[in-house]
Structure formats: structure tokens, C-alpha cells
Amino acid sequence: MTYDLVIGDRAYSSWSLRGWLLFDAFGIPVKTHLAKLYSDELPTMLRDYFPAKTAPTMRTPEGWVIPETIAIAEELATRHPDAGLWPADPKGRAVARVLAAEMHAGFSALRSHCPMNLRVSYTDCAPPPEVLADLSRLQTLWDWARAETGSTTPWLCGAYSAADAFYAPVATRIATYNLPVGPAAMDYVMAHLSHPSFRRWRAMGMVDLPDQPFYFRTYPRRDWPGPAPLPARAVEGGGTVNSACPYSGKPVTHALELDGRRFGFCNAFCRDKTVADPGAWPQFMALYHS
């Protein structure tokens, strides 16, 4: 048995990103159930997850329903003490919990002015003073955490922890809206954009559901500042180097082309998430390098 996790649109649901990272980044198996925001899909799905009202919501293998990312993080840490969700060092663990709690409850101006959108990046969004104040507070917290824990890694409390998962959606906002932060904060943002789990989430978010008009902005655009994907493209026809999908093992029905070679997948989503960022997928890269 495994966990179930209800999520919203990957491109836009910052809370869902945070919840999913608590599984994928720590090697905990989970089955996701995707529901489109601003539609009847999410409330309809959540009827089977009472008393939850929002995504993400977790169901444990025993059938217990646990909404809210802080509750999910604590429950997973209790059930999987060796997964490393919180730092093993008591002080580091306390600092990480402080960080997660403030992220869960704060930064309303930043959230409102800069909703998460992983499909675009802008040159400028004219952040008002309230957003600049949130950015200043973020950098204060991040600098404090590193100083308190003595972290020498790209992360806030040593090894990647639940605290970093909580701040991943903020890092994407800084990347999407080209928000002004100092060099240390930007290094932290770039570490998030390069994190393997985040890259997989974004790759899926580029293709899983249509654009949501609510998130459209007229700001001038720029390229996504994260790692540049390999130049794959979807193609029709056969001639693939593999007969079984690298993810499911099922027969190939769809294909992409990369560096003059064709690779097959069992459905359009498997192909398209790979086209979005081939390097994010270890199963595909093993096939690519074979």
C-alpha cells in the first residue's frame, strides 16, 4: 500500500508543489490525483477526503485523511524517521520548523502579487513596497537559518529538508517574476530550480493541463532561468530505439526525437513531460545514454 495525494494544477498550485516535494524529494512513494483548479474537479474529488477543503490532501495507507502541508510533513516525518524530512540535529530541526511555520502563515503580499506560475518568466513585475518587504524578510530568515545551523550546503539547514520544500514555491516566484534579491538568496533560488524533484514537477506542470487565465500577466517575458532543457521534440511515427516505455514498461505508442534518435513512450503525457525537460527523468536519461 502507498499514500494518495490530491493536487491541483502543477504549474500553478504552490501548496501542491510543497506537498508533493515532501514525498518525492525524500523517496516516499505516493500516488497523485490531479484536479483542475477553478473548476468543480477539486471539490468533487475532495468529497472522498473529508474534512479536507484544499489541495494538497494526503490519505495514509490506513485511510486516514490529512490536509495541510505542515500536518503532512509532521506525519510523514513520524512515519519515516530515516527519510530526513527534518534535520537530525535538534537545533537544526528547531530552525527548520520555525522556517516552515512562518512560510505556512506569512508572505501574503508576495503570494497575492506574484502567484506561482511555472510556465513563464518575466523581466519585471513592478513589485510594490509590501512585496519588497516580504522579500527582505525572506532573506533575513534564510541568512539567519544558515548562520544558526552552520549550513555549508545550498540548503537552509544542511541537507535538503522539509523547510526547503516549503520555500520551493517562493523560489519559483522569484524566478518567474525576476524579483530583486541578493546573491545569496539567488543562489538558493537556483538550487531549487536545479533540484531533480522540482525539475520533474515543473516538466509535468508544463504539459498536464491547459493554461489558467487567472495567472496571465502582460509583463515582458524572458526565458526560464533554470537549467536549459535538452532540445527534444514530439514526433509522429515509429522507428524508436526502444519498444517499451522507460517509465511504465508498457508498449510504445508515442515518440520524441532527440539528437537524431527516436525514443518511445506509452502515452502522450509520458512523452510530453520528457520533451519538457529530458534531463529531469533518470529513467529516460538511462535510455538516452544506452
Describe this structure in words.
The protein is α+β, with helices and mostly antiparallel strands and 290 residues long. It folds into 3 domains: 3-79, Glutaredoxin (3-Layer(aba) Sandwich); 90-201, Glutathione S-transferase Yfyf (Class Pi), Chain A, domain 2 (Up-down Bundle); 233-288, no CATH class. It has 11 helices and 9 strands. It has helices at 14-24, 41-46, 69-79, 90-105, 108-113, 129-149, 162-177, 183-194, 196-205, 268-276, 282-288; strands at residues 3-7, 30-34, 57-59, 65-67, 121-122, 221-222, 233-235, 254-258, 261-265. The strands form 3 sheets. A 4-stranded mixed sheet has the order 2-1-3-4. A 3-stranded antiparallel sheet has the order 7-8-9. Strand 3 and strand 4 (65-67) form a beta hairpin. It is globular and about 55 Å long. The model has no long low-confidence stretch (mean pLDDT 97). It holds the Pfam family GST_N_2. Keywords: Transferase.
